[in-house]
Hints:
The complex is a heterodimer.
Chain A: E1 4-7, E2 10-14, E3 19-25, E4 32-38, E5 44-51, E6 56-59, E7 62-67, E8 72-77, E9 86-93, E10 100-101, E11 105-110
Parallel strand pairs in A: 2-11
Antiparallel strand pairs in A: 1-3, 3-8, 4-5, 4-9, 6-7, 7-8, 9-10, 9-11
Chain B: E1 4-7, E2 10-13, E3 18-25, E4 31-37, E5 44-50, E6 53-57, E7 64-70, E8 73-79, E9 87-94, E10 105-106, E11 110-114
Parallel strand pairs in B: 2-11
Antiparallel strand pairs in B: 1-3, 3-8, 4-5, 4-9, 5-6, 7-8, 9-10, 9-11
Amino acid sequence: KQEVTQIPAALSVPEGENLVLNCSFTDSAIYNLQWFRQDPGKGLTSLLLIQSSQREQTSGRLNASLDKSSGRSTLYIAASQPGDSATYLCAVYQAGTALIFGKGTTLSVSS
Amino acid sequence: ETGVTQTPRHLVMGMTNKKSLKCEQHLGHNAMYWYKQSAKKPLELMFVYNFKEQTENNSVPSRFSPECPNSSHLFLHLHTLQPEDSALYLCASSPKGLAGGFEQFFGPGTRLTVL
């Protein structure tokens, strides 16, 4: 059974820092991996979708990498800002199942 | 309206009430999903509909009853809920169902509180 783990569970950094959020999964037979952002009490905003054949995707200050063989993905946020404060969720797509989510990393960026 | 919309955004109900959550997608997708997000737990899938047919029921109690009248609308009918059912309920849609890893697009969610 696929399990997705995100480390750390919470992270506090000062504005301007570069940071890395980690996601690991136990079964490498995935289609895609997706990173989401969730603001308190709100729905999910898709940040980046990495297909299984890709190694990374970039959008603005965000860069996500995928290493299927080791079951790992990282989300790199450059020059963090207070507006980046949110919970970041990692999820994997597998054949015949819905998205399987991690519990998320709650990020707080102080000004 | 664009994307995936959900109504109501907030709902408070007693254990004996009957209420319904509504989801509508404006993306031309054929698959729709209900997810539940409880405090301190990962999002978990409840139901999947593909071309209006239910293809997944993730062992959800019968007090939750989904309905998909067409590919654009999805309902979740609630009756005799328990306080532990209080959670954020998220709707999502994708071009097709679970096979193929199609990207899912999420609505803003309904925050449900059961008293």
